[in-house]
From TrEMBL:
Keywords: Aminopeptidase, Hydrolase, Protease, Serine protease. GO terms for molecular function: aminopeptidase activity; serine-type endopeptidase activity. This is Dipeptidyl aminopeptidase/acylaminoacyl peptidase. Residues 437-639 form the Peptidase S9 prolyl oligopeptidase catalytic domain. The keyword Hydrolase applies. GO terms for biological process: proteolysis. Gene3D superfamilies: alpha/beta hydrolase, TolB, C-terminal domain. Pfam families: PD40 (PF07676), Peptidase_S9 (PF00326).
Amino acid sequence: MTEATPQMVVDGAVPLHPVISPDGRWVAYAVAPIGMREKHPVSALWVAAADGSSPPRKLTAGTANDSVPRWAPDSASLFFASDRRERGVPQLHRISLDGGEAEALTAWKGGISDHLPLGDAHLVAVIAADEPTEEDERRESERDDAKVWGERVPYDRLRLLDLGTGELRVVDGLGDRHVVEVVQRPDGGPLAVLSWAAPDGDPVSFASELHVVDPETGKVQDLGRTELQAFSPAWWNTDGAWHLIYLAVTPPSPVGGLAVFDVTVPETGAAGEHRNLTIGMTVCPSGLAQVTGSPPLALFADGLDTAIYRLDPEARRFQPVFSMDGFADSLTVSRSGEVVAVVASTSYEPKNVHAGPPAGPLIRLSDTRPELRQVRWGTQERLSYKASDGLVLDGLLILPVGRSRDDGPFPLITLVHGGPYHRHPDQFMLSANPSGQWLATAGYAVFLPNPRGGEGHGHDFAATVAGAVGMEEWTDILGGIDLLIAEGVADPDRLGIGGGSHGGFMAAWAIGQTNRFKAALVGAGISDWGMLVATGEGGILEAGLGGSVGWEGPGPHPHDRLSPISFASKIRTPVLILHGENDTNVPLAQATFFHRALRHFDVEHEFVVYPREGHSFRERNHQLDVLRRTRAWFGRWLGDPAPDR
């Protein structure tokens, strides 16, 4: 067997953006390296027979960022975005299913944001910002780069590319709306368009709207304001009436996770209510896919697993079709609806493209990480336990490699997921972050809890953390740790905790509530909820978690009692803080604030800032450093995890 190394973790590849050809015979997808070695990312396009009858083949070299493949209506060629002409500036390209040289279709200054081949084989919908004007270029040459809020902002606009003439014309009817998504009605009719009021998503109001656009005339029909953070629109038809569904955050609170909303597209007049089709469900929607002539399909997170559902047009409810072990996302469907594909992962199998009928079974098409089969991994167990108030919870336990429960107790590291509206599904837990299997190969037991607030158990489960992050959510985690101690798995004197984003918040929160942990990892974590509302890209949405923003009047404010910074004086646990310098989701100021507080109270800690990185780290050398540094940190404070090995 081969030993797991940091290089093995970051030098692998992952499949992205699978899409089934309209005729259902082929699945195209991108393959990208995990660790970025150059200034700009690279990825290659691959295509595989949907029935697995032939091995996947590489369509592009992967020397540029070739991504987001979309099939032509006749299934004979692929449109895709690539920055091969100018690195960092994607343009639209087309390549034959048989391979060969790709044809560049645009040379738009600033590049394109998205594209969609239309039923009319001569047209492609393209989303792109306006090209710089002479005034823009003059100001740039004079270094007049003052930023005035709301001025000189590059709005993405809907455009139609005529493949015959090369003309790229804008659809005028949407005005100064920032276009973010477009999907065509399955019969080749009008386009559904999602737009924002401003390119930054407007972190104060997040006003998004849904429109129907006739690609021939440019006529626009407004369907009104969507629910928060809408995405993934899809068409469906019943009794001759067309509807649009989309995913969005459930109102009135921005906490509670995703729901499917439906609106009837009227022939004339104003649109009606945007109705929630997932009220009362104990699973959570994560993806939608429209089907020609049939109701749409959807992916749902179901506890530790994932399921395919189909919309019942009469009941206006989703019904289960097929359940898959572990994780799946990126649902794509053939025109007839007879073949689906997803990116899926199970306990010991990394993410790969799988395809088959909606009712299963799905077969694996890609094999991006065969080298991982040569490594012995820790045993991964499903956990089910009750919170102190009786709520049923789930999670995962990974035992040290080569060990069983009978060999315990072990040093235990608890890794909390982000979000909080995310989850630890029963997938292969190896990534460029300090992941479960990475720590298990070093001799640690790893607890991966799914506390309330997360995905996979319905709206009510997720909404319980509104204005109450760190409360019952924390006791849910603590209850799981105590259970593993009672069962002889965890050594109570060698406990560690860590996570990234919301998981980083929970680690920072935990060590302000108890001194039971001997070491902590705070990755891109929140230390002050009020400051996050002011500076993070989530804006006012973060107040749904923290409970307030700070501009309500003189404090103390509700978010003060939920911010780790308020409990810094109680921290005695050694802390490793990791943060990206260019993080806009959780800005670096959050880590700096926490670091200064720990310095003030003379708490042992290490503060590491990674240049050029955002909320997740992409550069290979930084990923290697994170893996080595976190394992060394826990080793320093928890001791040798397996002295007799």
